[in-house]
Specification:
- The protein is built from 16 helices and ten strands.
- The protein is α+β, with helices and mostly antiparallel strands.
- A four-stranded antiparallel sheet has the order 1-2-7-4, sandwiched between helices.
- A hairpin with a 5-residue loop joins strand 5 and strand 6.
- The model has no long low-confidence stretch (mean pLDDT 94).
Amino acid sequence: MNLKSRVIEYTKSIGVDLIGFTTAEPFEDIREVLQLRQQQGHFSGFEEKNIELRVDPKKTLEDAESIIVIAMSYYSDEEVLPTENPKFHGELARTAWGIDYHTILQDKLQQIASFIEKEKEDFNYKIFVDTGPLVDRQVAYRAGLGWYGYNSLLINKEYGSWIFIGYMLNNLKFQSDAPITGCQCLGCNLCIKHCPKGAIEAPYQFNANKCMSNILQKKEDVSEEDRSILGKNLYGCDICQKVCPHNKEIKVSQCSDFKPQNPPHKPDLIELLHISNKGFKESYGTTSAGWRGKKVLQRNALIALVNHKDKEAVPLILPLLKDPRKEIRKYTIWAIYKLDSEIAYKEFNKLKDEEQDTEVLEMLHHYLRSLS
């Protein structure tokens, strides 16, 4: 049995669903696509800006000869989860259920590297999980793990698009796997039709700046127009995957680490809004949502609360008008204004003599004028 076969066998033994191999040759087939997206301003801002690094693996690992790619399913059936949710609840996308996938896949890749090191003393490698310069979906595509849907997500026949991807640049030569042929998007356009802000502008044309998942992660102010389309979402968005016919009758993830733990998949918004730093770290720090920090998730929680459209939430957030963070005070003022104008007028009149920040004061005066 050659090394590649032994690596595949070992990878399966540690709970990895998919593995593929490809060369470290440049990904010239996507250079023009990346350049066009950059020119159009369609990047999210989280990816590598240097196109050369995104195309050429050897710019990251000089002696790279191949890339080992793994993928793990994170799909859990919502129907088996608790149905009794808090009255004021938010929603986490499946990418944020359970333990942070970066940690899980990095650990799996490190285990694979250690396995190879036992046989190859001169083994050199670099591991990336959603943090590397290459386009991980393109690496996985070339390694035969799936094909592209209209929403630019990679689709696998067994696991659909609910897969996390990680890769390992290395200095060994492995026989490459071939991209999948004979499979393609069904062309139903459901992902395009259901995207809340039209981020999928056309088949395979994705504008990250319109993506609800990206809007929820940004630290900049969220426009009032966008707040109305975010629904009860706190982090991420699953809409285009939920409607995709390729995601019907797929295998459920066997990895218990990706199932909802603490927090649950529909967290209590009021609890999140009043959570301590320690409590946030304990509940959200081990999830992929935690990296964005407490303030961003609490801002999203206030938006989700408004989208519940229930003024009974107002007394529960009044203490946040005294929050030391300007951003939270701003969103709390907006939330109270949207939910109950009568209470808003009363509270804002009291607050205007206490508020010190000019920006927040201007906001208060704006809303008071509209209420009077």
